[in-house]
Design a protein that fits this description.
alpha+beta; Protein Transport Mog1p, Chain A; 7-stranded antiparallel β-sheet; two-stranded antiparallel sheet; 3 helices; 13 strands; GldD-like; Gliding motility lipoprotein GldD; lipoprotein
């Protein structure tokens, strides 16, 4: 009889314990801590200066073979496996090639519409330093999640595009892309033409 009583008590406890409502655990997100950005002004022989994040490597600069003064500049982020590719082109006063430069920069961003979920554009103007442009953030599984261009409309034109060393997967690269996009905005805000 004692055995049956003990069994009934244990069964009762089991049934009472099983009546609790199930509460699912919240989704877990990968926590990525990036260092607080520290900026330093670039010191180079380019026709402009800007502030870059100190976690990026020194600039890789290559003079391009083009009709006007042109440079290709790589701003590498090894820890994030990303690079901002900058292209500088001098505006030819005789040919007024600014229109072509603007068309090419906007066309490059619009080519991402096939794969993009959304492409918000953020205009930027700094009349004091004659810097005018647009930062476009491309949301979705695209090769370049951010591009920008800036110009003074008379002599200088600079474009920038962000790429990662991995296959485009928006969810995976989002934290790193957001971090570098802030640096791209800071680059635009601190750019000064020489």
């Amino acid at each position: 009889m004692k055995k049956n009583s003990l069994l009934i008590i244990l069964l009762g406890l089991f049934l009472v314990a099983c009546h609790n409502d199930y509460i699912p655990k919240p989704k877990a997100y990968l926590r990525l801590d990036y260092p607080e950005p520290k900026y330093q002004t670039t010191n180079n022989n380019l026709p402009f200066t800007f502030e870059k994040n100190t976690i990026s490597k020194p600039l890789v600069i290559q003079k391009l073979n083009a009709p006007t003064e042109s440079y290709g500049i790589n701003l590498n982020y090894p820890s994030l496996k990303g690079t901002v590719f900058l292209t500088y082109k001098a505006i030819d006063q005789n040919e007024k090639n600014l229109k072509d430069f603007l068309h090419d920069a906007q066309k490059f961003t619009l080519e991402h519409t096939k794969m993009a979920d959304e492409i918000p554009a953020y205009p930027y103007e700094n009349p004091v330093h004659h810097v005018y442009g647009i930062l476009s953030v491309v949301k979705g599984n695209v090769a370049s999640p951010a591009q920008f261009y800036v110009t003074d409309s008379t002599e200088h034109f600079l474009t920038g595009s962000l790429y990662f060393e991995s296959r485009p997967n928006y969810d995976s690269i989002l934290p790193a892309a957001a971090y570098i996009q802030k640096d791209m905005r800071h680059l635009m805000e601190t750019l000064k033409w020489k």
